[in-house]
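Researcher: Please predict.
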Amino acid sequence: MPALSTHAEPEVLTGQHDVICSTSIERIVTVRQNTLQQIEGVINQIAEISRLTQSIGGKTALDWAMKQDFRCGCWLMEKTETAMKTITCNLDRSIWRDLMKKSGMLSLMDAQARDQWDRNLEGDDIPEISEANILSTFKQLHNSKGEVFERGVINVFRHLSWNYKSNSPCSFGRKIIINNMMKYDKWGYGLTWGWRRDQLVDLERMLHLLDGKPVPDNRADIACRLSSHIQQNPHCQNFDDEYVSIRYFQKGSAHVTFKRPDLMEKMNDIIAKHYPGMLAAKKPDS
């Protein structure tokens, strides 16, 4: 049986093969079940107490247990069958998100894939947290991790504008140009928020993974570092980072120059795999 991992580092290109290790799946399932049973007991107890207080004119828990003038919804005050369905769904959603984070799979996903995962969890038809479902889900994710990672590289490549000579429709060049990544006004430069920002973060993620290094936390990713740099230097047009240097312009475009040709070549190998014939065949070593 695969073990559960607390490592946040992605498994792709790191040599790790466990789906998730260290945390016990059995404990997660057991604690979840015990917790839900206790919650159901609490709901039934509150309902019984409400019946007693109402019988003597004291109204129900919705009246005497909530702050005055702040009668917000509380599932513990609802009927058991309604409350338990929603509470179970909310609990399972949080557990799935935690498992996904611990598995390292989020680090492999581009913005589009992460958004799809989040949307799936927001629905009402969330898979129950069970040993079988956890193992099945993460086995499937583990088996497709290479495909997920490569799709992230392809998505970054596909969304480049081919109106620039630097952006080759066949491969990543030494420099790429990303449109609409910056804004400029009388106060200086600013980083736009949206899918262009996601594109830059996805690019950084790919470079870290190809270099066998952990992906930066989203609170310290390249977009955050660039934004901080711009705030401190609002009229500067250059930003230098570990894997790339960026020069940006008032019209909103940003020129991203790769510092590691070896990593750029690895990305191009992925493009060649998905679009055979686009890249010229490599010359044999002489």
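Model: The beta strands are 175-178, 182-185, 188-191, 238-240, 244-248, 254-258.
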